[in-house]
Design brief:
The chain has 870 residues and is mostly beta strands. The chain has five helices and 66 strands. The N terminus is likely disordered.
């Protein structure tokens, strides 16, 4: 065929041949594909019995077998479970050599003992190689037929009733518990309980029981049985148990009830109490009767005769439908026929409350302001309204006498009242201040009117408090200070430490201010009230001023334990101390050494003490290695307790000036041996022992100047008690105690005891220069208004009740010694606060006017004058 040109191009496995002579194009498939053949299962379904152990699956290679070829084979899930019903085969490769046309694969069948329905799984062919393809059947279903049989259970359970016992009689309402014992060769599925032929309950869980709730409807004889079932449906009935039920028949008869008063159609035109009477009866007993006004329950009565007091006012105006509902013990009830009544009472006009004017102005020295409250728009009936004061720029207790809450009662027809509010006439120059009065909470139908708040403005009438004079020489601890140690600077020039709460300890407490601050410091207060001390308050760091006058009314009270001063240069002013007579050996104020610490330059001014177990105030050096203590106690009020004041042996340069001591067993004051002191202008009242004051001990001779003191006997004092006595006074002592002249002392009886006469001298052994001495004739009047922590507040809302009682007992010559007996005391229930920053100078430690006192000291001075009433 030399003239034939053949062109071959393979497209999609086709060969193209062009015959050049004829122009004919011949297409033909490659012989190699057809010769490789295709893989197919011999059948699309197979059936096998579970006990056959395996199933053989035939895979044919059809349409050719030229060349080696492979095909993938695996099992697949349908309803049969791999490894429970058959042995599954993961994807595996079946290899066919050239010329091989058939292979058989065996799949294991699992012969279990479980009765189950016919199940299926499948086998699949995939991924042929060697030019072979997949044929027509690539997935076949294998059906598994179960070969297990069911064993038939024909045995019935056994059953018997174990409760109740045969012959039981049930006479009271209660559940009747039926219990059965049942067993089966396979298992009990349930137990039914019957009364006669009536199924009354069942239980499917052992122990088998049922609580039959019987009532009187079940009264009579009953034959009880139990019927047990197993899962196959076999059943057995127990032997019968006879029981009798005889329960009381319940009361189902409702009471009878009717309203007998008021009359149907009654009309009331005035406020009154209407008696509503009810007749009720029952076959057993009526337990209660309820009265209804429409659907509203008004009252209940449980004792015959049944009646109700219906109080009517104009608020009840309108039509009313009254009914009574009676009950018996069984809960049966009956509602009576309704009785219509009408209330038509003229409506009262209690009125509204308001202030007559919305603003008042009063001069500070006016003493009070009268505020008028009007009742407008009606005055029917007795009503009330609450009246109180409220803070403004004026300070309660310092500028006015506050009213916390007061109910003003207006009787029928009363149309106005006047309420008086006290104004405090202080001596501090200040700008115009104001506070409010407020009305609230009207009662009995009254309301609030247009003006429920009124502003009360206080016009100051004080001249400016002069600044302390320019000091020539040492600057005193505070202006006007006198006595030994008053040259101390105390906290002058130091930091200002604020006390912001009444806690015993912790941030903002007084203990924190004294314990955790060092260096010069001035302690001020933004809070007032009682600080309950759980241990003594100890001052160990020197150079401190504690300014109690900075607290708002009613000031600071230290209760329980007292204060111990172990250091030097301390100024303590305007504090109350209330001890506890159960705290052994505790003083209100104790000035004493501790270790190597020695107290000196200490001033206690304008303080109030009471009820210490030992001394109210003790100054007890205890050592001879210190020559001068320089200690002053002045303008203080020391009342009640075992001892008053002790100035211990070796105390030198001690001043006891212008104090009041009353109703102690002794020591008003007591001076030990080797003391150097002056006792000036003190009012000493109602001592209980052998003398008011005493000097002397074995420590050495004393030098003491008594001037301008008043020894006043009281109800607890012994007859002819001397003012001054002695105990172990030593040779060389010099005691100045004149009875005439400018320094005269006075006494209810003798000024001195006989034992001190030989030690008396005519000139003061301790100089009185620089000490102001008030004539003893006016001493009581002076100290009654000036001694103590905050004398200006006595007689006001915030006055200290203990100090007020002490002064009253002195003026009336009453009272008694409280020897370690603490009276009931609940003073100062109000704890108040204020921001002190607006009262402090911008430059506290500067001296803007050049008088020697710092700016903060001048503020403290003015605040002290205010609480002292000067």
């Amino acid at each position: 065929m030399k003239n034939i040109t053949t062109i071959k191009r393979f497209v999609s496995n086709l060969t193209c041949t062009l015959l050049a002579i004829t122009g004919l194009l011949v297409l033909s498939a490659p012989a190699s594909h057809a010769a490789s053949g295709a893989f197919t299962f011999s059948a699309s379904t197979y059936l096998v019995v579970e006990g056959a152990g395996k199933v053989n699956i035939t895979i044919n290679r059809v349409g050719g077998s030229t060349g080696a070829a492979t095909v993938g084979f695996r099992t697949g899930l349908i309803s049969a479970v791999n490894d429970q019903d058959y042995v599954g085969m993961p994807l595996s490769t079946l290899s066919f050599a050239s010329g091989v046309t058939q292979k058989v694969v065996s799949v294991g069948i699992i012969d279990d003992k479980v009765i189950e329905p016919t199940e299926t799984f499948k086998v699949l062919l995939s991924a042929p190689t060697g030019g072979a393809t997949l044929g027509s059947i690539t997935s076949a279903i294998i059906t598994l037929r179960d070969n297990d049989t069911i064993a038939v259970d024909a045995t019935a359970p056994t059953v018997s009733l174990t409760s109740p016992a045969s012959g039981v009689a049930l006479l009271s309402a209660q559940p009747l518990t039926m219990a059965a014992s049942a067993a089966d060769n396979v298992g009990v599925s349930k137990v039914e309980f019957y009364a006669g032929a009536t199924l009354i309950g069942s239980d499917s869980t052992a122990p088998y029981s049922f609580a039959w709730a019987v009532t009187s409807a079940n009264n009579g004889s009953h034959s009880l049985t139990a019927k047990a079932y197993d899962a196959t449906g076999n059943s057995k009935v127990s032997a019968a148990v006879a029981v009798t039920i005889n329960l009381p028949v319940p009361d189902v008869t409702a009471p009878t009830v009717s309203l007998t008063s008021p009359a149907s159609g009654a009309t009331y035109t005035s406020a009154q109490t209407v008696t509503v009477a009810v007749a009720a009866a029952d076959s057993v007993a009526v337990t209660k009767v309820e009265l209804y006004d429409g659907t509203t329950l008004k009252e209940t009565d449980s004792a015959a005769p049944y009646s109700f007091a219906w109080a009517i006012t104009s608020a009840n105006n309108g039509s009313h439908s009254l009914t009574a509902k009676a009950y018996d013990a069984a809960g049966n009830s009956k509602v009576s026929s309704a009785i219509p009544v009408t209330v038509n009472i003229a409506v009262a006009k209690p009125g509204s409350f308001e202030f007559a004017v919305g603003a008042h102005t009063v001069s500070e020295n006016g003493g009070y302001v009268d505020v008028t409250i009007d009742r407008v728009g009606g005055s029917d009936g007795q009503v009330s309204v609450d009246f109180r004061t409220a803070l403004g720029t004026a300070v309660n207790g310092e500028d006015y006498v506050g009213v916390s809450q007061k109910s003003l009662i207006f009787v029928n027809g009363e149309t106005w009242k006047t309420e008086r509010v006290g104004i405090v006439n202080d001596s501090v120059q200040e700008s115009e201040e104001s506070f409010k009065v407020i009305l609230s909470t009207p009662t009995a139908g009254a309301t609030l009117g247009a003006v429920t708040e009124s502003i009360l403005s206080i016009l100051d009438d004080d001249a400016a408090t002069p600044a302390p004079p320019v000091v020539n020489g040492p600057v005193k601890a505070f202006p006007g200070a006198e006595g030994f140690g008053t040259d101390t600077p105390a906290g002058r020039g130091g930091k200002i430490v604020k006390v912001t709460n009444l806690n015993d300890s912790g941030a903002g407490s007084l203990r924190e201010a004294l314990y955790n601050t060092t260096g010069k410091r001035i302690v001020v207060f933004e809070v007032a009230g009682i600080i309950n001390l759980t241990s003594p308050l100890v001052i160990r760091e020197p150079y401190v001023t504690i300014a109690g006058q900075t607290a708002p009314a009613p000031g600071i009270t230290l209760s329980g334990y007292g204060m111990r001063i172990y250091t030097h240069d301390v100024l303590l002013q305007h504090l109350f101390f209330r001890g506890n007579t159960t705290l052994v050996d505790q003083d209100c104020i104790s000035i004493q050494p501790s270790g190597t610490d020695r107290p000196y330059n200490v001033v206690v001014d304008h303080c109030s003490t009471a009820w210490a177990y030992d001394e109210n105030i003790s100054i007890f050096p205890g050592y001879t290695d210190q020559t001068d203590q320089n200690i002053t106690v002045s303008n203080s009020l020391v009342g009640e307790g075992h001892y008053g004041v002790l100035i211990g042996s070796n105390a030198t340069r001690v001043s006891f000036l212008r104090n009041v001591v009353l109703s102690t067993v002794e020591r008003q004051p007591r001076l030990g041996g080797a003391t150097y002191a002056h006792v000036v202008n003190n009012l000493l009242y109602n001592v209980g022992a052998y003398e008011f004051s005493a000097v002397g001990s074995t420590y050495g001779p004393d030098q003491v100047s008594y001037a301008g003191n008043s020894f006043v006997a009281g109800p607890s004092s012994r007859t002819s008690v001397p003012g001054l006595g002695t105990s172990s006074i030593q040779t060389g002592s010099k005691i100045y105690v004149p009875v005439s002249g400018a320094h005269a002392n006075t006494s209810s009886y003798n000024i001195t005891s006989s034992g001190i006469t030989s030690y008396m001298v005519g000139t003061p052994p301790v100089s009185l220069d620089g000490i102001t001495i008030t004539p003893v004739t006016s001493l009581q009047a002076t100290l009654a208004t000036s001694a103590g922590a905050r004398p200006a507040e006595r007689g006001t809302t915030y006055g200290d009740s203990v100090d007020e009682r002490f002064i009253s007992e002195i003026l009336t010559r009453s009272g008694s010694v409280k020897n370690r007996v603490q009276p009931a005391w609940s003073d100062k229930p109000i704890a108040s606060t204020r921001d002190i920053d607006p009262l402090l100078p911008a430059n506290p430690n500067g001296d803007d006017n050049g008088n020697g006192y710092t700016n903060i000291e001048e503020v403290l001075y003015r605040m002290a004058l205010q609480v002292e009433g000067k």
